[in-house]
Design brief:
148 residues, 2 helices
Length: 148
């Protein structure tokens, strides 16, 4: 009877150890799979950031061209309207044109500020994810070292 109790204890102990090894092995496999993903994510992020810069430059060039074309069109139309309006009304038109110019400058500065914020947030988020993955990997390695 003592032999069967000892064999049962040994079987149970072996099963528990095997389960723990499987658990550590699972974390090891997960770590091995996530490392290349994290590395390619950083690489892809850099490539996407470069593409984003090119698109941003192209969009800014397009906006500048569009703005200058619109300004030329408006100036032509304003000239036609001025020729029809009496002189007293032209004074108010110049005042309104100055206000439009001021508002356009204000709008362009706000647009420049708005494009910088999402890039900084994305970089910070990527850094945080990488740090969490590295911390988890260190925990898994520590568990594996203590189990061995």
């Amino acid at each position: 009877m003592a032999k069967t109790a000892q064999t049962q204890i040994k079987k149970t102990t072996d099963a528990v150890r095997k389960g723990f090894r499987a658990y550590v092995g699972l974390y090891g496999a997960a770590y091995e799979r996530i490392v290349p993903v994290v590395k390619t994510a950083g690489k892809n992020y850099d490539e996407l950031a470069a593409k984003g810069e090119k698109l941003e430059t192209a969009a800014q060039d397009f906006a500048k061209d569009f703005r200058s074309n619109a300004q030329k069109t408006v100036e032509g139309t304003v000239g036609k309207v001025r020729s029809v309006l009496p002189r007293a009304a032209n004074d108010r038109v110049e005042e309104l044109e100055a206000e439009i110019t001021r508002l356009n400058k204000k709008l362009s500065t706000k647009a420049k500020k708005a494009t910088k914020k999402p890039v900084k947030r994305a970089a910070k988020a990527t850094k945080n994810v990488a740090e969490k993955v590295e911390a988890k990997a260190e925990k898994v390695e520590a568990k594996a070292a203590t189990a061995a």
